[in-house]
From TrEMBL, chain A:
Residues 397-544 form the Thiamine pyrophosphate enzyme TPP-binding domain. One of its GO terms (cellular component) is acetolactate synthase complex. It comes from Donghicola tyrosinivorans. Residues 5-120 form the Thiamine pyrophosphate enzyme N-terminal TPP-binding domain. GO terms for biological process: isoleucine biosynthetic process; L-valine biosynthetic process. The keyword Zinc-finger does not apply. CDD domains: TPP_AHAS (cd02015), TPP_PYR_POX_like (cd07035). This is Acetolactate synthase. Pfam families: TPP_enzyme_C, TPP_enzyme_M, TPP_enzyme_N. GO terms for molecular function: acetolactate synthase activity; flavin adenine dinucleotide binding; magnesium ion binding; thiamine pyrophosphate binding. Pathway: Amino-acid biosynthesis; L-valine biosynthesis; L-valine from pyruvate: step 1/4; Amino-acid biosynthesis; L-isoleucine biosynthesis; L-isoleucine from 2-oxobutanoate: step 1/4. Keywords: Amino-acid biosynthesis, Branched-chain amino acid biosynthesis, Magnesium, Metal-binding, Thiamine pyrophosphate, Transferase. Belongs to the TPP enzyme family. It catalyses: 2 pyruvate + H(+) = (2S)-2-acetolactate + CO2.
TrEMBL record, chain B:
This is Acetolactate synthase small subunit. Its EC number is 2.2.1.6. Catalyzes the conversion of 2 pyruvate molecules into acetolactate in the first common step of the biosynthetic pathway of the branched-amino acids such as leucine, isoleucine, and valine. Residues 30-105 form the ACT domain. Dimer of large and small chains. GO terms for cellular component: cytosol. GO terms for molecular function: acetolactate synthase activity; acetolactate synthase regulator activity. Pathway: Amino-acid biosynthesis; L-isoleucine biosynthesis; L-isoleucine from 2-oxobutanoate: step 1/4; Amino-acid biosynthesis; L-valine biosynthesis; L-valine from pyruvate: step 1/4. Gene3D superfamilies: 3.30.70.260, ACT-like. Chain A, domain 2. SUPFAM superfamilies: ACT-like (SSF55021). Keywords: Amino-acid biosynthesis, Branched-chain amino acid biosynthesis, Transferase. It catalyses: 2 pyruvate + H(+) = (2S)-2-acetolactate + CO2. The lineage of its organism: Bacteria, Pseudomonadati, Pseudomonadota, Alphaproteobacteria, Rhodobacterales.
């Protein structure tokens, strides 16, 4: 069915045909025709944010927690430039987004018109692909193509720039089924020779470890199920990146905890000493590998990734498999079972004994004493009091983020939304709103630091407007904690600009926004205060005053290998050499 | 010159050598990239090279399939085998890119570049310039009483050699197209 309609109507029709239920956006001159169409329909819910960056992060939260692409609508010029941080964040964390931006009319492009920016030029390096649509007849096809590119292969953000005259003009609408098939069809099935080689390695491995990442989550819930089946059937240990938490349950018997710079001792030691590393949907990020020439020196490395450019980018792969994690895991299981479910039991038992020895170090130990709340304690209590609930966690970026990854347990995929690759402070508040919009009845908690939280706190207005009962759990140390920690360890304890002076009264701030504020500073009151937060039917800003100088451990200092972790303050000062200091 | 050890059958869907065998020696490779001829596609390719710190020695682009709106970009680049491998994989990620071919490793290829050289000279030097041009099969495509413009086609090395010879005779300006290349054989 082809129909004549205006470009603005096409946008709404195309979104409907793509199954879009929610759009996060902010109106402006160059998108008024589209907002006029949104006004005249009820199928798509528009969430009015307070800042375009918030719109993109909210859409990311929506996308990560549902597996569906997030949709954003912003105006030209500043509307589009404000979206750039969110686009970059989504690109680095492989989150499917479709961002629609208004543009000045085609006949004014290049004239430095009011609110004109070269949006496709600016967003070219921070999107998977982008388009400037100059012809209304091509608009609907481009939007459908945008959804295809955003969601197929390694997911990512796309942007479609729509000049205002294209929105006003009439053209022919093309439905999704009628568009010609895109040549963009990434390979999903892994090469069978390679899969056989991997199964061979699984059967023989003496000290294997699964190292999984966000690719498992992106592949869909079925991939997580297959991963669980494979891990449990082989009895191999498994660790995960920050992005992959929840793909394998924290309560599972193979679980070692997160790895990397602030990963668990046993996870990093297993990575360093293993003889077979099976990377599933992770990308050997520098937060994971530490010093590259000392990274897991004795292991054979298998790497499963849907993006061929991830393979051999940083760490050479001995068994490279290009394909979708779900498809490849299915084939691995099939082949491994057909070959008799063999593993080297004897060696595995020895390996686990060694791992259990590492676990005895109890690397997450801390002392909760005195009248000050330790941030770790706050998170442990939060974990204990929310266990078993229908719970989604978002975070900001910094120490609290690492503590959340260490002390909270994730049993399912799509429950953990955090800015991993880009490390975007200000991600958590809007992301929590996006998650809550997608799951109105669930418990959504944003674990935050006070400094990050302030970066996009305006989105509390959005939470209140749409009755999104998000819980903002702020670990307030009145410091930029991670910056302070690095200054202590690297810069002679010169704490340059890393404290939060003139902080607002968060309880009053909550009241000003029209939500509930809770202040807690005594460990004795913590449980009751958390329960008060959980039981309140509406958004809450929880100001948890914590120990100001707590450092986040374990820590692999920059420039160090996995087996040279710092476990506590005692061995931390001056542990980082001059070469490590130049690394971020 | 095939540093990339491709296991037969293992990468049949892909132009990328997945089996690493990396050395630290910088190599020069000629890549042929088939792309949709749409707005901004060249900026995507160039942005990839500048954004990730890769080298471009030369780059040519033109539409080669007017019905299918496909352009062919020929890029000469240098880097270690690991970097060359990344360049190919990163090019392959760009959505309007259809195919990436490494003509340097995929078998023998013909590489040609066209150059125009303006040589300003008089007297004996004019005769010498024409004589050298004849040896290099360069054509004089324009002449005034005090200058020639020569057109020469060949490998970049041949053009370099010709330019070196013309320099003492009064080489005033040179314009080069960059390399165009095709693999040999029927396919």
């Amino acid at each position: 069915m082809t129909r004549q309609m205006t470009g603005a109507k096409m946008v709404v029709q195309a979104l409907k045909d793509q199954g879009v239920e929610v759009v996060f956006g902010y109106p402006g001159g160059a998108v008024l025709p589209i907002y006029d169409e949104i006004f005249q329909q009820n199928d798509i819910k528009h969430i009015l944010v307070r800042h375009e960056q918030g719109a993109v992060h909210a859409a990311e939260g929506y996308a990560r927690s549902t597996g569906k692409p997030g949709v954003v609508l912003v105006t030209s010029g500043p509307g589009a430039t404000n979206a750039v941080t969110g686009l970059t964040d989504a690109l680095l964390d492989s989150i499917p987004l479709v961002v629609l931006s208004g543009q000045v009319p085609t006949f004014m492009i290049g004239s430095d018109a009011f609110q004109e920016a070269d949006t496709v030029g600016i967003t070219r390096p921070c999107t998977k692909h982008n388009w400037l649509v100059k012809d209304t007849d091509k608009l609907s096809e481009t939007i459908h193509q945008g959804f295809h590119v955003a969601t197929k292969g390694r997911p990512g953000p796309v942007l479609i720039d729509i000049p205002k005259d294209v929105q006003f003009a009439s053209g022919t609408y093309t439905a999704p089924k009628q568009i010609k098939i895109s040549h963009y069809q990434p390979q999903v099935k892994g090469d069978l020779d390679m899969i056989n080689e991997l199964v061979d390695a699984l059967e023989k491995a003496k000290r294997p470890v699964f190292y999984t990442g966000g690719g498992v989550i992106n592949s869909g819930p079925a991939a997580s199920q297959l991963l669980r089946e494979l891990v449990d059937a082989t009895g191999f240990p498994i660790t995960s990146t920050l992005m992959g938490l929840g793909a394998y349950p924290a309560s599972g018997k193979g679980w070692l905890g997160m790895l990397g710079m602030h990963g668990l001792y046993e996870a990093n030691m297993a990575m360093h000493d293993c003889d077979l590393m099976i990377n599933i949907g992770a990308r050997f990020d520098d937060r994971i590998t530490g010093r590259l020439d000392a990274f897991s020196p004795k292991s054979k490395k298998a790497h499963i990734d849907i993006d061929p450019s991830s393979i051999n980018k940083v760490v050479p792969a001995d068994i490279p498999i290009v394909g979708d994690v779900g498809h490849v895991l299915e084939d691995i299981l099939k082949v491994w079972k057909a070959r008799g479910r063999k593993t080297n039991q004897e060696a595995l038992a020895k390996w686990w004994k060694q791992i259990d020895g590492w676990k005895q170090i109890n690397c997450l130990a801390y002392k909760q004493e005195g009248a000050t709340i330790k941030p770790q304690y706050a998170l442990q209590r939060l974990e204990a009091l929310t266990k078993g609930m229908d719970r989604y966690i978002t975070t900001e970026v910094g120490q609290h983020q690492m503590w959340a990854a260490q002390y909270l347990g994730f049993e399912d995929p799509n429950r953990w939304m955090t800015s991993g690759g880009l490390g975007t402070m200000g991600y958590g508040v809007p992301a929590s709103v996006g998650v809550q919009i997608a799951h109105p009845d669930a418990l959504v908690i944003n674990v935050a630091g006070e400094a990050s939280w302030l970066m996009n706190m305006q989105e509390m207005g959005t939470a209140v407007q749409y009755r999104a009962p998000v819980k903002q759990f702020i670990l307030n140390n009145e410091r930029l904690g991670m910056v302070r920690q690095w200054q202590q360890l690297l810069h002679g304890e010169r704490y340059s600009q890393s404290w939060s002076e003139a902080l607002p009264d968060f309880v009053k701030l909550a009241e000003a926004f029209g939500c509930k504020g809770i202040l807690c500073k005594d460990p004795k009151d913590l449980d009751d205060a958390i329960m008060e937060m959980l039981n309140y039917d509406g958004p809450v800003i929880f100001d948890c005053l914590v120990e100001k100088h707590e450092n986040c451990f374990p820590m692999i200092p920059s420039g160090a290998p996995h087996n040279e972790m710092l476990l506590g303050d005692a061995n931390a000062t001056n542990a980082i050499g001059a070469t490590g200091a130049v690394l971020v | 010159m095939s540093p990339l050890n491709i296991k037969k059958g293992s990468s049949k869907h892909s132009a990328y050598a997945l089996r690493p065998n990396f050395s630290d020696v910088e190599e020069t490779h000629t890549l042929a990239v088939l792309v949709d001829n749409e707005a901004g596609v060249l900026a995507r390719v160039i942005g990839l090279f500048s954004g990730r710190g890769y080298n471009i020695e030369s780059l040519t682009v033109a539409e080669v399939d007017h019905e299918g709106h496909l352009s062919r970009i020929t890029i000469v680049t240098t880097g270690t085998p690991q970097v060359i491998n990344q360049i190919k994989a990163q090019l392959g990620r760009i959505v309007p890119v259809h195919e990436v071919h490494d003509l340097t490793v995929e078998g023998p290829a013909v590489q040609r570049e066209l150059a125009l050289l303006k040589v300003a000279c008089q007297g004996e030097k004019r005769v010498e310039a024409l004589r050298l041009a004849d040896i290099f099969r360069a054509k004089a495509v324009d002449s005034t009483l005090t200058s020639f413009i020569f057109e020469i086609t060949g490998t970049p090395e041949k053009i370099d050699a010709f330019a070196d010879l013309m320099r003492p005779l009064g080489l005033a300006e040179i314009a080069r197209t960059g390399v165009a290349a095709l693999s040999r054989g029927a396919s």
